[in-house]
Design a protein that fits this description.
The protein contains eight helices and nine strands. It is of the alpha/beta class. The chain has a four-stranded parallel β-sheet with strand order 3-2-4-5, with helices on both faces. A three-stranded antiparallel β-sheet has the order 1-6-7. The protein is elongated, with a radius of gyration of 22 Å. The two termini are 27 Å apart. The mean pLDDT is 89.
């Protein structure tokens, strides 16, 4: 399971760096490296682009895991070069960007868009598996999440656009509810299709500010 990221267009990044003459670069050695969005080669490529745009890059680093406390230690170890910079451009997921922000008083900007938590289906191809909604329904949908797998996140069966087991959005996308039906049938649990799922409580998801939880001892 990794966080999937995608590079922002350079024309979206540069306006944020307009007042910064010197930019320090930070990449991540785990998820962003796997996605080829923030590993060593991508950081060096960004360095060339910034320098071609007239910026100076006093330093760069690829933190093994940019979303944990290694970031604080890495910033301390590279304090001289970081201090020389007017801004920090971070080539990691949004979690990594926020972690750098916690440990630096410099302006911090993201170079990537964070897409989803996913798994690698085949080499270089990733698929979303969880939207981290905070109210898991996999028990009633036999381990197949309609919130992620269905283009409309339907909770009470397929829409009218499902044809031959494929989603109307794309013929390459299986209908989530066809998959659920087939698995229920194989398990002898088709009666579950008759259950009406109540209106979903979205308060457990990303609405209402950052979610928090306290673990008991």
């Amino acid at each position: 399971m990794i966080t999937i990221t995608k590079p922002k267009p350079l024309e979206e990044i540069m306006p944020h760096l307009e007042k910064a003459k010197k930019v320090y670069l930070i990449g991540c050695g785990t998820c962003a490296t796997i996605c080829h969005t923030g590993g060593k080669s991508e950081v060096l490529d960004m360095k060339e682009k910034l320098e071609a745009a007239g910026k100076k890059v006093p330093g760069w680093m690829v933190i093994p895991t940019a979303c944990d406390e290694l970031t604080r230690e890495a910033l301390v170890e590279n304090a001289k070069a970081v201090e020389e910079a007017d801004a920090i451009l971070v080539m990691t997921c949004a979690f990594g960007v926020q972690t750098v922000t916690m440990y630096s008083d410099k302006p911090v900007y993201p170079a990537l868009n964070t897409l989803f938590v996913g798994k690698e289906e085949t080499p270089g191809h990733f698929i979303e598996v969880c939207m981290q909604c905070g109210n898991c329904i996999l028990a009633t949908t036999v381990g197949i999440c309609p919130l992620v797998r269905c283009a409309k996140s339907l909770l009470n069966g397929p829409c009218g656009g499902s044809v031959d087991g494929k989603c109307e959005v794309s013929p390459d996308t299986p209908c989530a509810w066809q998959l659920i039906y087939d698995r229920l049938k194989a398990l002898g649990q088709l009666d579950k299709m008759e259950e009406i799922v109540p209106v979903r409580d979205w308060s457990t998801s990303s609405a209402g500010g950052p979610r928090r939880i306290t673990l008991s001892d």
